[in-house]
Description:
mainly beta
Amino acid sequence: MLRRLWSAELPNPGRLEEMKKEAQAILSPDVFDGARFEFNKTLTQKFALNHTVFMGSSAMPASYEFGANFGDESVLLASRIDMAGRLNGRVNCQLSDSWLARLQAQVSPESPSAASSLKLDLDYKGSSCCAGATYMGGGLLGGHYMKSVTPALALGGEVFYHLSKHVRGGGAAARLLLGPKGESVATAKAGSFGNVELAYTHKVSEKVGLATELQYYHGQVCTFGLGYEFRLRQATFKGLIQSDTTCSAALEERVSSGVNLLLSGQLNHKKKDYKFGFGLVIGAQ
């Protein structure tokens, strides 16, 4: 039994933070308000530039963002900066086949101490397990581990400790593949502060997917969401219905080679909150 648990034939479960990636892909439609235009230009195989223009809406002023990306087999550098001077940067460095170092940083000239952030990650990827350590600006240390115990089941856990506030905690997680081809994925995560996250994804066909998620925070709030995705030959449509009566939908359609049309909408009659977005992506992959 122990030899089977640690067998190299078991699949790699991925990082704990990505264990519900199938559900998040469906439950996160690209919703925005107003008009948005993106221009992507690949200069070389390793270097690309992108420009994003927001025309603004009644709740959001017009803005512009500039981005630059560089990447090869071992290093990825990505950055974005807006007109207010807020800079977001990301660095991924593949140290070896098993080790990956990641850095994310944000710097704002408005309030450097309050708006700036830093996150460092060091990940290890084994044949049937994933482990990692995290440091976040402000003194938060964390660690996580995920292990496949059968071809369909992976178990894991995480711990964290805040250096200045002396707060510690942790959680346990599980990921289960269902169906003869693994077309369904169920995940569960429970934390030491009473928080519970449940997610389920079902691939109805090559073009249709369904997902649902429940998040419970002890003594605070409980939220629920149901999402769906349709992949057509030239378009992808996503929809989301949430427990607070918010309904969202997004459509991305390839109108020609390298040009995508974006349409999105979101409404909440209870809060009288309405959004509608129109966009174009030029230079889409």
